[in-house]
Amino acid sequence: MGTLYGHALAQHNDVTMVDVRADVVETIAARGLAVDDGPARRVDATRDPSRAFGCAFLFLFVKAPDTLGALRPFTGQLNPSTPIISLQNGLGNEEAIKAALGGQVPLVVGITTEGSVAVGHGHSRRIGVGTTVLGSGGASAATLRTVAELLQAGGLLASIAYDIRPHLWGKLLVNAAINPVAALLDRRNAAITDDSDAAELAREIALEVAAVARALRISLPTADPWAYVCETVAATAEARNSMTLDLEAKRRTEVNQINGAIVAAGRRAGVPTPYNEAVLRLVRAKERTPAD
Question: How many angstroms separate the CA atoms of 52 and 16, rounded?
Fold first, then answer.
């Protein structure tokens, strides 16, 4: 996703990509960023966060568990007026960003239905065309408009929501229902509706998310949570979601920020979430399973 958005932004802007992996940085520095079979666009690439301290906008595409650590080098180094843009999965990213950079940071939070898979360092293949919805986590209306215009100029669909919470929880609902079930099955997203047992489990997870949202008085962008999940499965049927890929690669997943966040919110609201807790524990156990 960082490649997809970096490539779009590089059409009209100077872009610096910061990554911890030396091989990724070296490849991007040499070849630029490419999407599908189109021409690559030149960007700066570095492992040194200090080379991005003077940036005009900081986009975060790290996994949710890495948010705080990724931003720590920027503490006290960024201009306080520099907007931070988070389109990350799960809950808790806003709190982590403000813990690292201060509560008054001009934060833009949002969701995207864009999908892409890495086919090489700095090379992504797009899975359909989605849209990005932006909201304020402390950013002004003018900043939201500017960020939307930046994305639109790069060829991405972007809009602004007065209240971003329904969109965040809508994305959380589909991630909670699809990602862990497909990941535990080690299957593509289509398995969620192709298999009756997988479908029933995913449906119960989605209904729990909807119950927690109602208890918190958060309006979801759908009246039918399961139909909403099925629409997303249909649109991404051949994709292997990020949690599936993380388990396959023996990486830490975002399950704590997705299903774990639902369990925690359910406890605060007095809403039982046994299905979310079950997949939370199973995925965490799978994370700890040693490689063969």
Answer: 7
Assess contact for 203 and 229: CB atoms under 8 A. yes
Tokens of 106: 């001009």
- pLDDT tens, residue by residue, 61-91: 999 999 999 999 999 999 999 999 999 999 9
Contact call for residues 62 and 85 (beta carbons, < 8 A): no
**Catalytic one of 63, 98, 171, 250:** 171
Measure the CA–CA gap between 72 and 15, rounded to whole angstroms: 20
Joined together, the tokens standing for residue 135 give 């909201």
* Residue located via tokens 């009209």: 12
- Return the minimum-mean-pLDDT range out of 7-16, 22-31, 55-64, 231-240: 231-240
The CATH label, of 3.40.50.720, 1.10.3470.10, 3.40.50.300, 3.40.47.10, for the domain at 2-160 is 3.40.50.720
Q: Where are the domains of the chain?
A: 2-160, 165-288
Q: Which residues pair with 46 in a beta bridge?
A: 18
Q: Element (H or E) spanning 149, and its range?
A: helix 141-153
pLDDT at 118 over 90: no
Asked about 286 being catalytic, the answer comes back as no
| CATH code, residues 165-288 | 1.10.1040.10
Give the C-alpha distances (Å, rounded to integers) separating 217 from 79, 210, 224, 240: 36, 10, 16, 32
pTM of the model: 0.92
